[in-house]
């Protein structure tokens, strides 16, 4: 996974993770040269709770994909000046959209022509005039699968937190926002202490339990607006927006104290674990690299200083 993650996707994932808002409605892009036809389909989908956008000018396709970020594209095959086959082919060539579901909505009944139009990577076909229930089912099943795939791409598989790529991308974005709005932002690097020993003594699966415990604690104790990611093996990153260094320190130090109270029971006995953390603020480190390096330096100071502590 090399492509930068779209921030819209991240926001949705964060909403899901924090359980704060209703899941966002599916977003359906409808491409048809006849506005009335497109509007009819749009209304059917809207009544089923989905968000729609219509496109009649294929030249605006790329812009529309970026701006609307559809979960699925419904398109006509025959349109003046271009055809659905070419548009579908174009979408499949964009690295960000290789997995985007595309469904034709057409009155074409010639099987050979249809098959040829689908060969560019279109997985569905609905015949016009469409049966409303069939349209809604065909769209929601595919949109749902797209959502699942997208959220998998930005998540770490063990903990469900944002993965390294996603948290980095998120940081870049909130940093730009913080600069524009002159708000504070703290970046926190957390690293579990002597984690190798945990694995060596109690086994790798027990190590995973420790990682999970810390992840859950962070998800529970941080606000929905705070962003938590698994930065690497036993390293975590937190982005705290709109808080000062002092406030950030209080939050992370409380996490540290709570984490230290956990008791992990194993056949070889009970143990507890600690972490060290370094915090850097965007007021002193304005660029992404600066901020990350600063947090990293502070973290290693905390390690050298004896571990189980949060430094700024
Ligand atoms: P320090 O206090 O200096 O951070 O020491 P440490 O032992 O925590 O650091 P070190 O970097 O030496 O070891 C990190 C260990 O984390 C090594 C690696 O095997 C383990 N690790 C990384 N990812 C995972 C994982 O997903 N699960 C488990 N169980 N262990 C992991
Ligand atoms: Mg047409
Ligand atoms: Mg480490
Ligand atoms: Mg460590």
TrEMBL record:
Top-level EC class as recorded in UniProt: transferase
One term of GO molecular function: diguanylate cyclase activity
Domain Response regulatory: residue ranges: 27-143
Lineage top rank: taxon: Bacteria
Keyword annotations: Nucleotidyltransferase, Phosphoprotein, Transferase, Two-component regulatory system
PTM-bearing positions, type 4-aspartylphosphate: 76
Catalysis performed (reactions): 2 GTP = 3',3'-c-di-GMP + 2 diphosphate
Chain ranges of the GGDEF domain: 183-312
Nucleotidyltransferase as UniProt keyword: yes
EC number: 2.7.7.65
Name of the protein this chain belongs to: diguanylate cyclase
Species the sequence originates in: Giesbergeria sinuosa
Residues of the full protein shown: 244 to 555 of 560
